[in-house]
What does this fold into?
Amino acid sequence: MTPVSELVDRTRQFVRDHVIPVEREVVVGGRVTDDALRLDLQKKAKEAGVFGPLSDPAYGGLGLDTRAQAEVLEAAGASLLGPLAVNAWAPDDGNIHLLAAVANPEQQQRYLAPLASGEVRSAIAMTEPAPGAGSDPRMLATVAEETDTGWVINGRKHFTTGAQGAAFTICVAATTDGPTMFLVDQDNPGLRVGRRMPTLDHTSAPGGHCEVEFVDCEVEESAILGTVGGGLDLAQARLAPSRLVFCMNWLGLAVRAQQLAAEHITGRQSFGVPIADHGMAQGLIADNEIDIAAARSLIRATAATIDEHGATSGQARHEASITKTFVSEAVWRVLDRAVQLHGGLGVCEDYLVARFLVEARAFRIYEGPSEVLRWSIARRVLRGPR
Amino acid sequence: MTPVSELVDRTRQFVRDHVIPVEREVVVGGRVTDDALRLDLQKKAKEAGVFGPLSDPAYGGLGLDTRAQAEVLEAAGASLLGPLAVNAWAPDDGNIHLLAAVANPEQQQRYLAPLASGEVRSAIAMTEPAPGAGSDPRMLATVAEETDTGWVINGRKHFTTGAQGAAFTICVAATTDGPTMFLVDQDNPGLRVGRRMPTLDHTSAPGGHCEVEFVDCEVEESAILGTVGGGLDLAQARLAPSRLVFCMNWLGLAVRAQQLAAEHITGRQSFGVPIADHGMAQGLIADNEIDIAAARSLIRATAATIDEHGATSGQARHEASITKTFVSEAVWRVLDRAVQLHGGLGVCEDYLVARFLVEARAFRIYEGPSEVLRWSIARRVLRGPR
Amino acid sequence: MTPVSELVDRTRQFVRDHVIPVEREVVVGGRVTDDALRLDLQKKAKEAGVFGPLSDPAYGGLGLDTRAQAEVLEAAGASLLGPLAVNAWAPDDGNIHLLAAVANPEQQQRYLAPLASGEVRSAIAMTEPAPGAGSDPRMLATVAEETDTGWVINGRKHFTTGAQGAAFTICVAATTDGPTMFLVDQDNPGLRVGRRMPTLDHTSAPGGHCEVEFVDCEVEESAILGTVGGGLDLAQARLAPSRLVFCMNWLGLAVRAQQLAAEHITGRQSFGVPIADHGMAQGLIADNEIDIAAARSLIRATAATIDEHGATSGQARHEASITKTFVSEAVWRVLDRAVQLHGGLGVCEDYLVARFLVEARAFRIYEGPSEVLRWSIARRVLRGPR
Amino acid sequence: MTPVSELVDRTRQFVRDHVIPVEREVVVGGRVTDDALRLDLQKKAKEAGVFGPLSDPAYGGLGLDTRAQAEVLEAAGASLLGPLAVNAWAPDDGNIHLLAAVANPEQQQRYLAPLASGEVRSAIAMTEPAPGAGSDPRMLATVAEETDTGWVINGRKHFTTGAQGAAFTICVAATTDGPTMFLVDQDNPGLRVGRRMPTLDHTSAPGGHCEVEFVDCEVEESAILGTVGGGLDLAQARLAPSRLVFCMNWLGLAVRAQQLAAEHITGRQSFGVPIADHGMAQGLIADNEIDIAAARSLIRATAATIDEHGATSGQARHEASITKTFVSEAVWRVLDRAVQLHGGLGVCEDYLVARFLVEARAFRIYEGPSEVLRWSIARRVLRGPR
It folds into this structure.
C-alpha cells in the first residue's frame, strides 16, 4: 500500500497538471462535462496511480480507509472535476459504498465491478416531486408490486442524479413490507429518463439531476438490493460515507479558492498598498483559514470514528450529520469570501471562484438540508435528558 | 401628481400582469433580455402610467422625490425585470440622475431626453483592468489629452455596464487637471466595445458588463460633462442616488422571494405537517422579515435625508454607504434563506429564487464593495474623536 | 411645546452633566441605585426640563408623541441611569402607558399621578415559577377568587420587576372569566415581597427583580384594572410601547459605547499606529455604525406606525416585535464589539462597557425572548399564504 | 500510566462529586475563591488521582501528552473551579509549561516543584498600562538594568494574573539586549501588588488580575529565566500550550452548559409541549452541538501537532492561533445560547449559565484578542503567495 502522504502529493500533482486545465475549458470555455471528458480524465488518473480512492484494489481501487480518503479527496477536490477524475463523485461514490457493503456477489460483479473501475456510471432515484418523498422518506410514493416473475415499479422521481448516460439506477420504491431498493438497468424500457433539471450545479458532473419516470418497469427478483423492506436502512447506511465524501471534496475546493484569493490580493494594489495589507481583507483570509481548519479536523475526526466504529454506528451517523452541516456551511462562507476578495472580478466567470460559489449552493441542501440535519442532531442530544 | 400609494399599487399590478410572465420566459425559457424585450416592457409601463419614477415629467417621468421612489421601486423590484421596465435600472438610473444634476441644456436635450424617455440606453465606463482603477479611483489609467479641436481619449475599461447597444457612454478619463467625465457617442469610431464579460448577473439587463477600449477616441469640447478635473466629484454625486436605487430595487426582489418561500412552505408537507409548522423554517421566515423591515426603514430614512439635505451632502453620503452595505448583505441573506426554504427545488431554476440569488451576488460588490464601504463608514465615525 | 431637537440637546446635556458622574459612582464605586439616588436624579431632571418624556403634561410630563420619544430616549439612554432619571425605565414606563390607556379616573388619580410625577415607583407581577406562566401566558397559575367584598389573590410570582420599595404592584391573576389585572397596594398584608433575584442586570434600577407571593391577598373591586378577564389584552397593549421604549433606551447606550470605543482606539497605539488605523478595528466600528443606524431607523418607523395606527393595531404590534428582536440583538453586538475594541480593559469594570454588556444580556429575553418573537413574526407572515 | 479514558472518567466523577458543590457555594452563595478553598479542592483531587494533568510525575503530576490533556481537561472544565482543582488554571498552567521547558535545575527545584505540586501559586506580569505593552510586545516599558550584583527592575504592570497571594511572579522587562524574563519572589520589597482589578472573570481563581509595580526591585543574576534578551521567544513558547489549555478547559464548560440547557428545556413546558419540542430551541441545541464538536476536533488536532512537532514549531503556533480564535468564539456562542435556552432564568445567577457567560467574556481577549490572532493567521497564509 502506498503511504498516504505520497498519494496525496501525487493526487495534488495530477489535479494541477491534468484536471485544472480541463476545468478552465469547462468553466470559461463552455466545454461540456460529458462521458468522453470523464473517461479521458479517469484514464489519466489511472496512469497517475490516483484512481479509485473509494474502492477496493480488486476493482482497481486504492483500498484506503476513511482517514486516508479524507486526505486524498481533499487533494482531489482542488478542482471541480477532480473528484470525477478519480471516481469519487456523486452519485457513484455513494453507490460504490452501498454496493460494496450490501450487494450480493452476483450484483457486485454485474454492477459494482464496472462502476468501481470507471467503466460505467450509475444513478440514484430517491427524491420525488410533491407530494412524494423529499426530506421525509415516509412520504415515498413510488411503488413496487410483486409479480409472478419479479417486481413492477411505478412512480415519478426527480433530482435523479447521474441519470443521463448511466448504466443503471438504484431506485427506492415502497412495497407492502416497506421501502426497498432495486437495481434497474438503464435500458429497461420501463425506466424513462426525462429532462435534465436546470440546477445551479451543472458543471461538475455528467449525468445531471434528471426527472425520471418508472412506468410498469419490470425487474427480476435479483434486482433487489439488500432485503425487501430494508431500503431505509440501506439509505441510512449510504448516507454517512456519502456525506463525508462530499465534505472531503468540497473542502478541497475551499482550500483552492483560498489560495486563489490569497494570490489575487497579494498581486493587486489599492489605496497605495497591496490589497493583502488591508486589515479587512486579512480578516476574510483569516476567517477562511479558521473555517478550513475546523472543517478539516471535523472531517478527519469523523473519518476516524467510521474506521473505528463503522459507518452505520450511531456515533458515526451523528458525527457525519454534524460534520456535513458544518462543512457545507463553512465551504459556502469560504467561497463567498473568496469571491468578495476578488472584487468585481469575483462575480465574473473568467475567475473560477464565481462558478465555485454557484456550484456549491446545493451542498447545503442535498444529502440532508441543514435544517433537517439540525433537527436530527438536536433530537439525539435531547434524547439523553429525556 | 398621483398620490404615492396609488402609484405603488399600479406598479405592483403592472409587474404582476406584464413583467413576471416575461421574467419566467427569460429565467426558465431562456429568452434573451434584449432591447426588443426592453422596449416592449417599457411601452406597457408607459401605458400603465408607471414609467419613469426617476425622471422629470418633462421627459415623461413621474417626478417623484426620493421617498416616493423608495416605495415605487420596491414595488417595481418584485421582478428581476421590473426596474428595467420602468426605466430605473443600471446604469441608466445613475446616468439619469447625473445628467439631470450636471449636464448643460444642450447635453440634456441630446442625451438626457432620449435616455429618460426610454428611447435609448447608455453605458458608464469607470472600472479598468489592473493596474488601473478599481475601488481606488486614484489609479485611473485611461487618459484624455487636449487637442486643437477637443480631446482624444485612450485607455481600456472593463465592467462597462450597458455598453452593448447603448447610444452613448459616459467615460471617466484622467486629464492634467484631474479625472474628467466625457460623453462619447457609441458610434464614435474610437470607442470599441469588446466582449460581454461572463458575469453571474446576466439576466436582468440588456447591454451587459463589457470590455471597452478607447483608441484615439476623438471628442469635441462639448463632450465634457461638468468641468475638466471635476470627474471624481461627479462620480461621488452619482453614487448616493445610484446606491439607493439599487437598494430599493433589490429590496423588492427580497420581498418577492420571501412571498415565494412563504407560499412554498405552506403548500408542502414534511414529517406529517406543513413545512411552515417547523420551527426552524419559521425562524428563517422571521429572520427574512426582520432583514426586510430593517432594510426598508434604512432606505426610507436615507431617502428622507437626500430629500432634505441633498444627495451630495456628507450626511446623505454616509447614510447611503451604511444603507448600501446593510441592504446588499440583508438581501443576500433573504434570498439565500428563500432558496433554503425551497429545499432541493431552491437550487433548480424552475424556481426563480435560484436565479435571484445568483443575480444578487454582484450587489455586494458593485458601487462599492462592502469592505471599502465599511472602511469609509469607519473613517467618518473616527474623524469625530480625532 | 418645546421643539424636539432642542429637548434632545437638553437631555443629552443633562445626562452628560448630571447622570454620567453618578453612573460612574454606581458602576465603579459600588454606590447603590436606591430611591434616594433616583429621587435626586429625577429632581435634577425636572430642573433641567427633561423629566417625563412618556407622560402627560397634566402629570408634569413632556407630552411627546412616540416619534419624539424615540429621539429623546435615545439621548437619555446614553447612561445606564439616564432612563431612570427621566422616569422612563421599567417597569414604570410600561405601567405609565398602561394606566394612561386603561385606568379609570379614580385609578389614574391614585396610581398614575404619583407614578408619572416620580413620587413613587411601581411593580409588575406577571412571570411565575414553573409550572406557571413564563413566555406562555396561558399557563397562569396565580388565581383570584371573587368574594363578597372584592377579590382574594393567591399565587407565587418571580422576576417581579421593581417590587422592592414600590408603592403598588400590577398583578396578573386567573379568574373564572380569564386573566385579570389587579392594582395591589404594596402595604397590603397579603403581598409579600421576597428576595431580590441575583440577575445580571442589577445596576440600572432600584426595586430589582423579586420573588413575590400573594397569600390570601384581599383587594376591593376597585382594584381591577380594565375588565375582568381582559388581562391578556391589557398585557398585549402594554407590550408594544414597552418594547419600543426599551429599544430607544438601549440604542442610546449602544451609541454611547460606540463613542467610548472610538475614543479609546484613537487614543491608543499598537504595532506602530493608532489602533483606529487597523482595518479589523475599523470593521468593528463600521459594523457598529450599521447596526446603530438600522436599529434607529426601525425604531423610528415603528414609532410612526404607533402614532398613526395606535399601539394596539396589528401592524404596530408586528413592527414592535420585529424591532425588539432586531434592536435587542443589534445592541448586544454593538456592546460586545465595544468591549472587544477596548482589549483587556474592556472586561474590566473601570471601563463602563464591561458593565453595559452584562446589563444588556437580559434585553434579548425580557418582554419576549427572541425565539418567541420570531415565532410570532413568522406566524403573521405565514398567515397570508394560508 | 493510567489509560486515558479511565482518567477521564475519574476526573468527570471528581468534578461532579467534589467540585460542582463548591462551585454552587461560590457562584450562588458568595463564597470566596481563596487559597483555603483551592488547597482543599486540590487535596481532594490528589486523593482522587486526578491532580496534575499538566505536570510531570516527578512533581506529583500525571505525565500526560497534549492529546491526553485535551480529554482530561475537557472533563475538568465541566466546572468553573475544575481546572483550579486539578492545577491547570491560569497563570499556573502556562508557568508550569514554561518552567518545565526552560528553567534551569535550581529554578525548577525552587519554583517549578512547589508550583507543580500545588504548594504555591504564581503570577505572570507582562501587560502594562498605556503607553506600555498590550497586544504589541515591542511597546514594553518596564525596564531591567544590570547592576554589580544582579538586576534592578522598574515599571508598572496591570492584569498581572494571580498576583495576590502568589509565591513568585514571572516579570517581563526590557534590557539593552531585549525583553527578558525574571523570576521575582513575591516577598521582594521592590514588588508591590496593588489593587485587584474589577474584571468580569472574578469567580474562577484566587489571585485575581492585579495592578503591580516594580520599584527599584533588585533581583540576583539567578533570577533570569532563559537568556537575557530571550524573553519574547519564551513568551511565544508559553503561548501555544497556554492557549490550548484554555481551550480545553472552556470547552468543558461549554459541554456542561449544553447539558444544563438540554435538561432545562426537556423539563419545562410552553405552548402545550416541552420547550425541547420547539424547532427554534432545537436549532440552538444543534448549533451548540456543532460548535462543540468543531472545537473539540480542532483542539485534538492541534494537540497532536504539538505532540508531534513541538509546541514552538511554526505549525503548532499557527494551529494554536486558529484553535484559540475559533474555540473562544464558539464557547461564547454556546454559553450565550445556553443562557437563551433558559429564558428569564438564564440571566439569574441561581442558574449557573449566567455566571459562565460573564466569566467567559475575557477568553476572547486574553492570550491574544481575536483580531490580533486573525492578523497573525492571515499573515502566515499570505506569506505563501508573496
Summary: Chain A has a mean pLDDT of 96. Chain A has eleven helices and ten strands.
